[in-house]
Here is the input.
Amino acid sequence: MSSSHASEDPSLDEPASGQAALSSFISRSSISTSQEDDALLPALLPGRDDEYPSQSHNNPSLPSYNPSATLTFRQDPEPLRDPVLHNSFLGMSELMDSAARRARMLERLGSEFKTPSFSDSLPLASSSFDSERTVTLNSPTEVDNKSRFRSFIDRINRRQWSFLSDQVQGIITYNKEDISLYQLVETFKEEFSHRSHTQMEIVTLVAGTPGDKEPVAARLKVKDLVVQGRPYTASSQRKQTEYTRHMFVYFTDERISEIQDIVDGDEKRRQSPNIVPVPNFRPPPPPSSIDLRQFYDDYIACINGKTMQQDLHQFCKGTVVWNGAEMALNHYGQLMENAFDAIAGLQFVPRTVLIDEAKQQIAVRIEFAGLPIKPFGSAIPNGRRVHFAEHAFYWLEHGKISHVLTIVDWEDFKSQLGY
Here is the structure.
């Protein structure tokens, strides 16, 4: 069988390198570009530096490459046989190396190109081109503050403390106190030590208008594995617990410069097995979109104006799910009225309002100030004024509030009253 092939093509009887055969193959291939075809051909030849022709060998210089050019590799009509292996096709590894070198060269040019792919069903000693296939080299994804925050949480979960300087400023405001990055790391190390199983998971994330300084708000699920009894023994029992924290994070020069972090302390102490989930199966936004920022400003004006009994129905559905509890609208309004009764001069002041139109979602950091005059939030008044905050997430259905998930910083509230 091999002798009959040799008589048909005498050149196959003379040994030659696979590299030379590959160069011969490329010279026979049909390559088309949107630029000058023949001028680009020498640059595509794989191999050593001395195989790239120069002007001293009477070869034209390479033209400047247009990034919009598209290269198409078409199947060679003639079969390629390796002179060393005689009757077999060129080895798969050599062809793959050639294709990889072409891809690297074209990637540096940053073009959209078409490249050969090889059939996995062929044996190692044979190869063929599939039909044309276009591969587009996408530009790097633009990093926004949502991505920066996700990276920050991932670093904490992985205990990669030394990398937090990539995401966080050297001096940062954490819960109204200016601290160094080192102090911030030590704060998180207490909760997320190397021996602990504590992890944070982003449940929902809302960001403002894309930009360097726009904050993000996140509802986070903190999962912990509590070991009861002596660890690593048959008698020990493991219990997974969850609690919630709401973070509002602010950025300066693409790094975190402020974190307002409120943990649901009651939920953490209860060692709850599950947190309250966010609402699912949301209806689509209403056909006539409303200005959610103006909507929320009017909602807060209704609360501060104490006209909830008359006007709250304009902003909320007849039944509101508040922190997982379904309650009638008048009971929901009673929550705010109780706060006004217990704290003299109380006002709801939104510091940060973030809108997600597509999800019909609003995230707000609300700050309060006033003089407690009745027991409230498990604390008794002592004549001191208080200043505390709440992080709330709202979901709307058909233009009205249907679900609210909120955490009030009761720890800060009680500490100002001496608890």
User: Anything to note?
Assistant: The radius of gyration is 33 Å.
